[in-house]
Amino acid sequence: MNYNYVLSNNLVIDSSVSLDATIINALDQVHLLVQQRLQAFAHQPEFTEKMGLAFGIGVEVDFLRTAWLAGDYSIFPVIEIRNTEELNGANGAFSTETGRIYLAQEFISNNIDNLELAVNVLLEEIGHKVDDVLNNTDSAGDEGAIFLALVQGESLSEEVLQK
């Protein structure tokens, strides 16, 4: 049985497990924090250059900047909540086949008091989604981790960019 929830700003959550109000509220807060981070990132003058580091120099990203500055997050895919074992022990994942982001229910439950961890996982998986939209092939390195670091304002070494 699948459960369907609609959070603020029409983010759709599908779940293979029933979610209680605490988890739904936490996911809503995580979603809002992610939106705030992306909007702040889009405000940065070096947005285009940073996106080029994650997804390839010259990749067209102006539409994302415009959307995020306007509060349009329609690039966000459906998020599906699964058991950790269904995600092979991962806290989150993005599937190019389904176009969905998957989050582990146990990870969310265990980190209700530290939503920053869930924000980081969701930003990383959104980075994989953005790469899927921008590129026909997977970018070099871990574009999700690079995207997360850049959105969070971290400086990255050349070594990290190549991984």
Detailed description of the structure:
The chain has 163 residues and is of the alpha/beta class. The chain has one domain: Collagenase (Catalytic Domain), CATH 3.40.390. Helices cover 49% and strands 13% of the residues. The chain has seven helices and five strands. The protein has helices at 21-43, 47-55, 62-69, 105-110, 115-134, 143-151, 158-162; strands at residues 3-6, 12-15, 79-82, 92-95, 100-104. Strands 1-2-3-5-4 form a five-stranded mixed β-sheet. Strand 4 and strand 5 form a beta hairpin. Helix 5 crosses helix 6 (143-151). The termini are far apart. The mean pLDDT is 88.
Radius of gyration: 15 Å
| Tally of helical segments | 7
What is the residue-averaged pLDDT?
88
- Share of helix, binned: 40-55%
In the predicted model, the low-confidence regions spanning at least 5 consecutive residues are none
**How many DSSP-defined strands?**
5
How many structural domains does the protein architecture include? 1
Q: What's the CATH C level?
A: Alpha Beta
Portion in beta strands? 5-15%
Pairing-aware structural class of the strands and helices?
Answer: alpha/beta
Give a quick account of the main beta sheet: strands, pairing sense, barrel closure: 5 strands, mixed
Distance between the termini: 39 Å
Which fold does the CATH topology refer to? Collagenase (Catalytic Domain)
The backbone outline, from C-alpha atoms, is globular
Name the helix and strand elements from N-terminus to C-terminus, one letter apiece: EEHHHEEEHHHH
